């Protein structure tokens, strides 16, 4: 089955690989598999349909042996949306759909992963990647402040100084370092990526699906149980509001569009 979100470039396809294992492949080749609103909407729909079919294990990715797994947000859409990662926006809805999917979602990663796409991979239950995989958080390049919920996902998975390195420097985390810190569960050669992911999926598919579903939901609830004082939430919201409304954010978007180095002024 498939959904074509844009007849010229964007597609989200799904299939049943074998008994109890499904696969979703997203594609946006003209934009380096960027997570456009159309693509995210189609992805959310496919996740819901496979959940309704009670498929207990899913492989998720954009293909194998390619330069870019996903370039993250389609920055061309940011001219009309100053905060594309806020609650209720397409990316956040998909991240919640992945994390609440009633089964195991395995990210199958080949190539570099940028911005919001890193969050997508880390929202999956398991990550299988080849040695070309690199993970770069680039919001600071355009002046976009990341969300508290997104930072918490990284906070739980990475040492604090590595997390700061990723967000402050926007430098890619190599596949080897990602595996070292536990971000990647299985590291494989490109020629073995699909076989490795499928072997992992089969091991899960053989288990009791209701038991795994219950454990996944318990872990999700425990991870989400992060009470913060109202004052702290208000402070965070105000800092994000200022950054999203800043001239720096506009400069970052203009510089990206013009393919030049941005000149940030802290305003």
From TrEMBL:
GO MF entries: enoyl-CoA hydratase activity
Keyword Plastid assigned: no
Pfam families: ECH_1 (PF00378)
PROSITE patterns in the cross-refs: ENOYL_COA_HYDRATASE
Domain of life according to the entry: Bacteria
Keywords: Lyase
EC number: 4.2.1.17
GO BP, sorted A to Z: fatty acid beta-oxidation
Family named by the database record: Belongs to the enoyl-CoA hydratase/isomerase family.
PANTHER family according to UniProt: ENOYL-COA HYDRATASE, MITOCHONDRIAL, ENOYL-COA HYDRATASE-RELATED
Identification of the protein by name: Enoyl-CoA hydratase
Species assigned in the record: Collimonas arenae
